[in-house]
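ugh ok so i messed up the first submission bc i forgot one of the chains. this is the corrected input, ALL of the components this time, i swear. 723 residues overall. if the numbers dont match what u have on ur side tell me asap before i send this to the collaborators (the ones from the other lab, u know who)
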Amino acid sequence: MSGLDNIPVNVEAPAMPFGSGNTGAILAELETSLQTLLTSGKEHSIDLRSLPLLPGELDYLRERLGKGEVQVDVNALGHSTVIETAIRGVWWVTHRNAIDNVMAEFLEVSFCPDIIRAQRDDVRESLETLAALLAGDNHS
Amino acid sequence: MNRRPTIAEQLARQGISRRAFLKFCAATASLMALPPGMAPAIAEALGKIRRPSVIWLSFQECTGCTESLTRSHSPTVESLIFDMISLDYHHTLQAASGEAAEHAREEAMKEPGYLVLVDGSIPIKDGGIYSTIAGISNLQMLKDTVENAAAVVSIGTCAAFGGIPMANPNPTGAAGVQALMDQGLIARKPVINVPGCPPIPAVITGVLAHYLTFGAIPPLDALGRPLNFYGDSIHDRCYRRPFYDQGKFAKTFDDEGARKGWCLFELGCKGPTTHNACATTKWNDGTSFPIESGHGCIGCSEPNFWDAGSFYKALSAPADPLSFAAGAAVAGAAVGVGMSFMNRAKKSSAKAAHETATLKDLEK
Amino acid sequence: MNEMELLNWVRGPGLNIAVAVFLLGTIWRLFEIYSLGRKQDLSAPRNAAGASGWHTVVRRSMPPPGMLKRSPVSYIGGYAFHIGLAIVVFLFAPHIVLIENLIGLSWPALPSQVVDLAAVVTMAAMVLVLVDRINKPVKRFLSTFEDYFTWAVTFLPVLTGYLAVQHLLLPYTTMLALHILSVEILLVVLPFTKLFHVFTLFASRWYNGNANAHKGVPV
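and heres the new structure output, hopefully the right one now
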């Protein structure tokens, strides 16, 4: 649908000595959230689409946070990526839909983002599937 | 009993895992401009609610709102139509036409509690003859359809506030849905206004998703607009705001200030009085919004924006040329000159009436 | 009438009416005052050092010796609010755009934070002089309804403007409409009240100075 990626456009941040001020706020929010995660185990998530960021500021943020050791691809209702940043415990989560448009983008602060973990209901179903599988094997 | 499946059931039927459902909820929260922490609440709500029937009525409109909706990326209009709602009537998008189409609408209306979406304003002058569908006037169709509706969503500025068809001198007597309810011409139902010319696609789907998920009207502002999308002004969320505060303005569309991305206030940007999500949600799958492309906001999500003077005149400048000024100045001068002649006459008559006092007068 | 309709009215017909009344009143009164004329003084002029119309314009703009100490609020408060008002009215970017649209002249604006500060100082000084007027028995005795009325129509535009910019109390659109409306009231009232000193202040000082200088008295 969106052919924008095919157009070679290089977005340059306008010459702004001050920026929107939001990248600093995001980093500060991550700091307090990491603190909370350590003390109380409470997870936190920042919706990157709800903030007015300047062209280029998202890239700046990505650069500042860097890349960590884990990168997970999730194929559920389209492709999602969960990338640990160099700040461990901070995950960059990008959800895409079936036609590869970004639906949502979050910074999640947690030991392991929920989307990676197998869900209880799914595991219950898996058990049934496996039981059926074993039953099938025994019969043969 | 033929009950409508819940949205979660609908997704499960399509073989969608809980993990995918979780992702769907996270994206939906983002779409609805809710905090990410709301995703579990959305998941719970979606497990309970049934896919409601939706009737979409198009009146005096340009199809721009439908065009906008079909460009929604998250969720795509397909997933919205197939997973979340049951769109039973939309004369632009549906395959059926003519009598079959009208039949679909009548069928959907048999079960009360459906959601009515309206785009376009409704002409009420001369018995509403200026716009009809299948021989039924817009007013009559809206009246019949709203009767058993759970709520009405006015999509676009025309349905919400009257829009371009209502612009001075309003030849068709066009009015928005809320105005018709206020005048008692149609039944009073809860109304959500989603103005914009057109509204941002993600805002249309976001508002629908919110209503469908929570089964309730989201918090609204005084003009009936959902606060999560229309709560802030464009100006307050604008990335060019720092330039406004510094007093740096583009004076023309091609000067140095324009090239450097300075504030467009002097070029007529209506950002300070316009409430919409353009500055954050943006357009075309989050690519940009008008101000980012170098054009001021025209204020399309506000009532009467079409009659608010030039789009290129600063908000603090007069909306119309001051037609009385020259006349008033001349009149003022005339009155002043008249008064001065009167004062002179008074003075000279006082002089004429002056009598020299003599000793005799004092002895009186 | 919703807030957008109100804003459209004050930006359109309202402004039109207000400016018309202002121009009519101002030109009328200026013509009337300056055409009054005075009897020619036939005596031989006496010269004295520091006695002229211009001297008086300057001298009356400063506190006489000792007066600053006796009524500091009148002088300092008075200066603060007049200068603050001038900054707010003439150096705030949206105001300059308005003036440019009306008469075609423009000049650079101050950053909005500086204008915000000037607005706060102006309002504080205005409240201070009002409190002083009410508290001091002599001032209170000399005050008429017009004094309080003109104070209010001057104060309201500053207050509503500040509240609009800071997004306080009411939505911006409503507050902006009220701000413009309050300025329009000020424009209508100005030619017909003591606020007309905007136009006559320096002329009357010059006139007094000149008349007294003829008699050899520096005032």
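quick check: Chain B has two domains: 7-229, 232-340. that seems consistent at least. Chain B has 17 helices and nine strands.
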